[in-house]
Protein: UDP-N-acetylglucosamine 1-carboxyvinyltransferase
Amino acid sequence: MNKIKEKEEILLIEGQRKLEGVLKVSGAKNSALPNMAASILTDDYLYLENVPELLDIETMSSLLSNIGIDVHRNGNSILLKLSKEPNLKASYEFVKKMRASVLVLGPLLARFGNAQVSLPGGCAIGERPIDLHIEALQKMGADITLKEGDIIAKAPNGLKGAKIEFRKKTVTGTENIMMAATLAKGTTIIKNAAKEPEVVDLANLLIKMGADIEGAGTDEIIINGVSYLKGAKHKIIPDRIEAGTFAVLSALTEGKILIENYPFEYLEYVNNILEDIGISVIKVGERNAVIKRRENIKPINIETKEYPYFPTDLQAQFMVLLCFAEGTSIIKENIFENRFMHVPELRRMGADINLDGFGKVATVKGVKSLEGTIVKATDLRASAAMLIAGLVAKGTTIIEDIYHLFRGYEKIEEKLNGIGAKIERKYKKDI
Ligand SMILES: CC(=O)N[C@H]1[C@@H](OP(=O)(O)OP(=O)(O)OC[C@H]2O[C@@H](n3ccc(=O)[nH]c3=O)[C@H](O)[C@@H]2O)O[C@H](CO)[C@@H](O)[C@@H]1O
Ligand SMILES: C=C(OP(=O)(O)O)C(=O)O
Structure:
């Protein structure tokens, strides 16, 4: 799909339709991406199941193919194998589309002693530097320079184990260093490691490949380097952010949606918030959920924080939920400096939201209803928020720049239209 066409696509949503049926949670994008990058660490086959069909997965597939990995997709399964002399460069063409491209840096350097990866630019939600990845690799003996916008990393004699203490928790930073450390000489200790379920999922794959890793899911991960890794088969965990997005949508409708494959274990904090504000999270069987409003939604103060606390990737969707609370809620964004771009768009639909605290704090006053209009999807999760808002608003909503949504939500129109929504994907010129 070419970029110009992508930018011309909109979603047309008919609001307040009755939604009833089953929504199935897909595999986690943020787990599939690092798991795919791990294919660089072996000459054997890596077979990944439950990989969502998303733009970001396509980007990672193209990037890995460009490096020299054969990527074969069959529905939600992907077979990956390094099959030729690798090209050790990840160019800006890929990195600009998706910051997670930086996940190839650690594996390339660990396996081949050389890597050139374009430095990601700032993105819509914030500056997002990768200084912590670079400093950690330097501690492991890498020589890193910047040249014409590229990170040139060298470790001709291999990486060595090191004690790394991240100043700040970083998800892809922890993943990059964990992958690099699997093939380093000696022991690496990562302190203040990210504890996200996606980090644990990657560790589980690496262990199947023969890596010696302990402590993933805690603040301290210990990795004893091994000389080679073998192939493995692995099933990607469910996407807790997609599940949380569906939970918000269910809470704002009649509660007739069954969310299949709901990862209760990764959403404990989020489920407690739902319960606190008057929304029941009902377990149906082992892995399904019904999310149902018990009473009028109560206001609450929430702030984003690293796992196991409230995820920044659900902040925009919860803001839509709190637009319907009886009273005033406060939402503080602590992870990214510019992740409230959905606020002006929600205001256009009649939401009463004010920003203060240098744009870090949103005060959300509950309103009776939202009204459909033309809004923009400003980033991935903001687009999910606009989609929920459009589905529950009066009248018709048009969401522009909708390509963001397809980075992270598998077959979203198909899934939602399957439970009674009316969402049409069109070109701007055709409406
Ligand atoms: C592909 C993937 O998994 N993406 C997720 C990952 O992004 P990502 O891994 O990029 O986010 P990080 O956890 O690294 O970022 C957390 C904070 O640390 C800062 N930072 C990070 C690295 C660094 O070298 N220097 C630095 O200052 C960032 O700017 C941000 O303020 O975690 C985020 C936080 O949960 C999620 O929103 C993203 O969906
Ligand atoms: C911010 C996100 O992704 P990425 O880190 O790939 O930009 C996200 O998934 O919400």
Summary: The two ends are 20 Å apart (CA to CA). The chain has a mean pLDDT of 96.
